[in-house]
Amino acid sequence: MSGQVAIVTGGAKGIGKAIADRLAQDGMRIVIADLQGAEEAATAYPDGVGLTVDVASELDVERMAAEVEERCGRIDVLVNNAGLYASLEMRSFSEIPVEEWRRVMDVNVLSMFLTCRAVVPRMKASGGGRIVNISSGTPFRGVPFLLHYVTSKGAIVAFTRALAKELGGEVRVNCVAPGFTMSDGVEEHPEVVEALQQVSVSARTIKRDQVPEDITGAVAFLCGPESSFITGQTMVIDGGQFFH
After folding, report:
1. Angle CA(134)–CA(129)–CA(226) in degrees, nearest 5?
2. pTM of the predicted model, to two decimals?
3. Residue 96: what are its φ and ψ, rounded to 5°?
4. Residue 79, exposed/middle/buried by CB under 10 A (0-12, 13-18, 19+)?
5. At 29, is the secondary structure helix, strand, or coil?
6. Of 178, 163, 152, 166, which Cα lies nearest the Cα of 78?
7. Calpha distance 214→199 (Å, rounded)
8. What angle (nearest 5°) sits at the alpha carbon of residue 53, between those of residues 48 and 54?
């Protein structure tokens, strides 16, 4: 994958940063797109590019794609990792404010539509590409008290399948669904760790915490040549909590 260009949204920390680190090890030029810390995070990579982007903004996303094309000459890989999760309060569905529901859908789902719409024509111009969407294991297990988040992550699976059919073999579109992961964002919210860490570990076949690096191998595989006959698929990476 040497010389290819990969955009990782939400790549300044946590799961996104771990994915960016792995793709850089595989020889890709990394573009970090994030609301905060993108420029600083990008300095960790040779010729890295950091762009401050609100992935729920149509104008921001189109600017991102145009700037990457101008500065890097091509776009080969898009990892749609940005999303809202740990900052959300766990509560009954009847107590979720409508504006919060809309914000979750905008950041977690609309963003993927916008980024794919912006980069796919540019991928095709370079001969094709790979898109990997980051979902979650929660829609497969039906986790309660985060209905907007779980719904948004289920939508990503459907989005992946439909877009893969539409794009055919020219751009492969796949999805990775992690379990509860001890990422930077999660650890910043002790109440989330307290509520979910032990119950998640106890439900797994592999009895340990999940860390961001547990996810990167699957993403790198779906971005690379060995997955050339795979599209529209979702890989659940959760230590055997759910068998998909």
Report:
1. 80
2. 0.95
3. -75, 120
4. buried
5. strand
6. 163
7. 19
8. 155
Backbone angles phi, psi at 204, to 5 degrees: -90, 155
The pLDDT value recorded for residue 71 is 96
How many residues comprise the chain?
244
Residue range 87-125, pLDDT digits in tens: 899 999 999 999 999 999 999 999 999 999 999 999 999
Q: Please, are residues 136 and 153 in contact by the beta-carbon 8 Å criterion?
A: yes
Spell out the long-range contacts of 101-106 with Cβ–Cβ below 8 A and sequence spacing 24 or more: 101/148, 103/56, 104/148, 104/149, 104/152, 105/148, 105/151, 105/152, 105/155, 106/56
Give, to the nearest 10 degrees, the angle between helix 147-167 and helix 98-105: 30
Tokens 């032990």, residue located: 198
H helix runs in 126-189, sequence order = 138-141, 147-167, 184-187
Is residue 192 predicted with pLDDT exceeding 80? no
DSSP string, 179-192: -SB--HHHHT-HHH
Inter-residue contact 223 to 25 (CB < 8 Å): no
Q: Which amino acid is at 9?
A: T
Active-site residue list = 149
Cα atoms found within 13 Å of the Cα of residue 163, Cβ hemisphere only: 24
Of 111, 62, 61, the closest CA to residue 82 belongs to 111
